[in-house]
């Protein structure tokens, strides 16, 4: 165990018992995106589910970004025993995912830093982009360099605000080793990782590999289970509720507690569809990260153990919107129940 992880583990020990404290358990609001809830409703649902953490991962969930409004939301959450974490979108100015809705990349990041401080969040989640960045001019390396420049220009603001910036491995943009290089180039004293186990699979690495490579930099998470199997053109992935895919969560969380015990386990279920990755396609292969042959070999072995699954379908003849809302709530609540069965969560919950 690295020294940083050892120190974190020591900090996480129960004050009276000498036993490790339980990992905090929460949810990412994207898991219930179909509800269209704003921050107050998200906080109330977190309180109802007795979770420790609520990760509001987009600025559109707020009716106002004025400090006074955010401070009131902070008090509302604190009164219900919920710790808030804030997130936003791409701050890489040259990524196809970047939008100027919040101004330039620097202005967007500065807005996020201010909102993070007012909300009482320890971190601000940001992303680089998606797999599309791998095929841009200069490839993912150029996009990483562009994003690092934005982060460095705003280091002083982040440090002064007493928070850190958590970069997510998002939608196939970066393999864990590439994200590791971004964090180290920007500076791990104020930049870390939002760990997404499902997105790891989209970069053809197992969630366990992803955790091993990034664990010491993890500040927060967006986790879900995955099923993977060999298919006609390569491999197919289906994200699932926790405990219903192929990840060995018992061993995953044992290692998680060693590497990043102070990071909350936030559930972000995005289930119900299949995505095939054409491993033998030249265009696909040309965009994949180099220098990680062990990653691909282990991923292929894992995929060989999987079996095909059908995607979710809304009942015919019914209200699709309501069906999707019910499906999302059920996926999240089953996931929280499963995580609690593994000993996660610090608050007692009874349905």
Straight-line N-to-C gap: 38 Å
Average residue pLDDT: 93
Low-confidence stretches: 1-18
Identify the overall geometry: globular
Strands ordered across the widest β-sheet: 7-6-5-4-3-2-1-10
Helices and strands, in order, run as HEHEHEHEHHEHEHHEEEHEEHHH
| Continuous helix count | 13
The helix/strand class is: alpha/beta
DSSP strand tally: 11
> How much beta, percentage-wise?
15-25%
Largest sheet: 8 strands, parallel
Radius of gyration: 19 Å
Estimated helix fraction: 40-55%
Structural features, described:
With 351 residues, the protein is α/β, with parallel strands linked by helices. It is built from 13 helices and eleven strands. Strands 7-6-5-4-3-2-1-10 form an eight-stranded parallel sheet, covered by helices on one side. A hairpin with a 2-residue loop joins β8 and β9. The longest helix is centred in the last third of the chain and has 22 residues, at 320-341. It is globular. The two termini are 38 Å apart.
List keywords for this structure.
globular, 13 helices, 3-stranded antiparallel sheet, 8-stranded parallel sheet, disordered N terminus, single chain, 351 residues, alpha/beta
Question: How do you describe this structure in short?
Answer:
The chain contains 13 helices and 11 strands. It has 351 residues and is an alpha/beta fold. The strands form 2 sheets. Strands 7-6-5-4-3-2-1-10 form an 8-stranded parallel β-sheet, covered by helices on one side. The chain has a 3-stranded antiparallel β-sheet with strand order 8-9-11.
